[in-house]
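step: validate -> pass
step: tokenize input -> pass
step: predict -> running
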Amino acid sequence: MSVPQRALVLFAHGARDPRWAEPFQKLQERVQAARPDAVVATAFLELMSPSLPELAADLANKGCMDVTIVPVFFGQGGHIRRDLPLLVDRLRADHPQVRFHVTGAVGEDAAVLDALARYCADALGRA
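step: predict -> pass
step: emit ->
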């Protein structure tokens, strides 16, 4: 079976505790189920692997030609404004045959904020 030429990378911060990655693994599984036509994978900024450069190299080696990076961050902090653009510049230089796209941070999307607001508001009924 061939590898899809498109990939969706969930880009998260990373932490020392491996349990921190569990929600991202669940998110990856849900996204993969929704998009069987693409490779869905998670990469981390620090402390966990794979790193974004490691994952991008693996995807490029497998033939993925179009990679969309979704920062699974709550907002556009320094990691998204400074670190991610530098990483993506490096990816583009290292893999000129691959098109890299970057979305905004998930926490700045209105639908995501609406879902979080519902969850928070519903907490009053669960307490």
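step: describe -> The chain has a mean pLDDT of 94.
step: cleanup -> pass
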